[in-house]
Amino acid sequence: MYLPPYIIYAFLISLGSGVLGAMLGMGGGTIMVPLLIFLLKVPIHIASGASIIAVVATSSAAAVSYVKEEMTNMRLGMFLELATTIGAVSGAFLISVMSEAALRTIFGLSLLYAAGTMFLQSRKMERSWAQKPNDAIAERLQLGGNYFDSARNETITYGVSNTPVTFIISYVAGIVSGLLGIGGGGIKVPAMNAVAGIPMKVAVATSNFMIGVTAAASALVYIRNGYCDAFLTAPVVLGTLLGAFIGARLIKQVRGVDLKKIFVAVLLVLGLRMILSGVGI
Amino acid sequence: MSSLKRMETLVSNILMAGVLMSGALILFGLMLTAVTGDTSCPNGNMDLDWLIMGDPFFAPSHILFLGFLTLIATPVLRIAASIYVYMKLRDNVFMTITTVVLLVLVVSFTLGIG
Fold first, then answer.
1. In A69-199, where does DSSP find H-type helix?
2. Preceding omega of A43 cis (within 30 degrees of 0)
3. Section A23-47 average pLDDT
4. Is the CB of A53 less than 8 angstroms away from the CB of B51?
5. Which residue in chain B is spatially nearest to A72 when comparing CA positions?
6. Could you give the ipTM of this predicted complex?
7. Are residues A78 and B82, on separate chains, in Cβ contact within 8 Å?
């Protein structure tokens, strides 16, 4: 019995990223990809290929409970999937014409963006949310919905406004997801919450629901282009799944805000390192 | 049972089954790797024949790829199931939307850049 050591290391790296990702409400890919690049010297195309398949796994696993809890707005999700999947395929095709250096720089910038939004989140616990009515498109497609908020013990009905803008932002989120091999929830969730006026919990569940199909579209292009190393992807998928499972249980025992502060620092360091290595310093 | 409830149950069952099946295949593939020590894998563009049939079928890398494809097929199957549900509900707009999403997925796989 023998497994090459890098399989074990890749498993441990993704296990850690999966735990952290689940505790912070973001995909594991964001920190896993830079760690695979820096610690295991994996080319970014291959690291992103492993990550995108792990993203399919974690979002499908998480969707099981979100859908059962009826948090997911499936009509809105299926409508916006139109934008995210086309974006994801565009992004995944784009990756084959981009250099390692360019991709590292873009990835680094996305890490700094994630650090920025997380920093803002940690300052105000509850994002302000104003209930908005359906706009014309949302009314035609019946995109609004309702859910039972257990914290407030009431059923909350909401509309979907600014549908065209939300659709365009979803397309961009799809491109970023395909290009970098991450879920892209960091772009979609704030857009659905702030632009479309959807409650935060529904935005998180619906974004996760879409990520499965979005990541599947990019993953197919990655596989066809040969950016999927079976012996790296396998431990990454299992590690991330197990990590996400552990993280979801740990989250109830740790104070969220303290963890976010540490994580903002980690994202900043990884982001800067990615950018510096991308521009050749 | 309401149509929404039926859709929710169907979706979560598909997702659960897909994740468990692919997890089992990937675990099996890694066990085969450990036993045989075979970490060979075709380089470059994946061809469809190899992805399905393998060479040989029980090569560790092929079993792992079957696991990944099962995982990817899970959300694709979910889309296919929802097309069927919208068809039964005679919701033409959403039937069209989900059909286009399915087409994008199929095209993304068959095209693959050279």
1. 74-95, 100-123, 136-141, 163-180, 185-190
2. no
3. 87
4. no
5. B8
6. 0.89
7. yes
Going by C-alpha positions, the residue among A235, A234, A1 that lies closest to residue B35 is: A1
Q: Which residues contact A26 (CB under 8 A, 6 or more apart)?
A: A114, A183, A185, A186
pLDDT recorded at residue A129: 63
- pLDDT (tens digit per residue) in A80-137: 999 999 999 999 889 888 999 999 999 999 999 888 888 887 676 555 567 788 999 9
- CA A202 – CA A216 distance, rounded (Å): 22
Nearest to A56 among B12, B33, B75 (CB): B75
- Chain-chain contact of A233 with B100 (C-beta, under 8 angstroms): no
What's the whole-number mean pLDDT along residues A30-56?
93
Angle, CA of B8, B12 and B18, to the nearest 5°: 150
Contact A205, A192 (CB under 8 A): no
* Residue pairs spanning A and B at CB distance below 8 A: 165
Residues of chain B with pLDDT under 50: 113-114
User: What's the distance, CA A246 to chain centroid?
Assistant: 18
Q: How many CB atoms lie within 10 A of CB A105?
A: 19
Give the mutation candidate from A58, A66, A78 for the B interface (greatest B CB count, under 10 A).
A78
Predicted confidence at residue B114, as pLDDT, reads 40
Tokens of B17: 């089954």
Q: Would you call A237 and B26 a contact, using CB atoms and an 8 Å cutoff?
A: yes
Residues of A in contact with B105 (CB under 8 A): 85, 213, 216-217, 220
Cβ separation of B43 and A223 shorter than 8 Å? no
Closest to A31 in 3D by CA, of A276, A265, A254, A204: A265
What angle, 0 to 180 degrees and rounded to 10, lies between the N-to-C axes of helices A230-250 and A44-68? 40
Interchain CB distance below 8 Å, B72 and A235:
no
